[in-house]
Amino acid sequence: YTGKTGSELLTENIKKLKVQDYQQVPVAVNEDASIYDAITTMFLEDVGTLFVVNEHSCLTGVLSRKDLLRASLGQQRLNEIPVHIIMTRMPNITVCRKNDSLLEAALKLINKQIDGLPVVKDTEKGLEIVGRITKTSMTKALVELTEENRFD
Ligand code: ADP
C-alpha cells in the first residue's frame, strides 16, 4: 500500500499520458496552395487546423478556421491568393513532440488560446510534421482516464 490518496494517483496517471498516444493524423497544405484550396481541404479532411509546409515538407505555418473566414470576407479571388500570405508563420508556431506529456501540450493550448498543435520531429531541413494534438485529443484522454466511462 502506497499511502497515496486517490487524487494523487489520478495526478500521477495524468502526468504519464504522452502526446504520441493521443495524437491524430495531421493534414497539411503547401504554402503555394490557394485559400480556396485550403478551405476545400479543411472541409474534405474534417479538421479545424491545417498545417502549411514548404517544398521540403517542413512546417512553415498554421491556418485556423477563422484565419480562412477572415481572409474570405469580401474577398473575390480566393483562388489566386496563396495561403502563405495569411497563415500564422514560423517561428511563431507553438509545437509539441511525441515524447512530451499530454499535460504539457494541454497547457500550451490553454496558454496560447489555440485549438491545435503540430507534433513535430526535428530534421536537418526543418520541422517535419508527424501528428496533431487538438482539444479533441484532450477530451478523449479525459474519458479514457475512467475505464467505466467508455461509451464507444
Ligand atoms: P480559430 O482562429 O478558428 O478560433 P485557433 O484558436 O486555433 O482557431 O487559432 C487562433 C489563431 O492562432 C489563428 O490565427 C491561428 O493561425 C493561430 N494558431 C493556431 N494554432 C497555432 C499554433 N499551434 N501555433 C501558433 N499559432 C497558432
From TrEMBL:
**Keyword GTP-binding on entry:** no
The residues covered by the CBS domain are: 22-81, 87-148
Q: Does the keyword Repeat apply?
A: yes
Q: Which domain of life is it from?
A: Bacteria
Tell me which UniProt keywords the record has, alphabetically.
CBS domain, Repeat
Annotated signal peptide: none
Put simply, this protein is called: Helix-turn-helix transcriptional regulator
Ranked from the top, the taxonomy reads: Bacteria, Bacillati, Bacillota, Bacilli, Bacillales
Which section of the whole protein is represented? 59 to 210 of 210
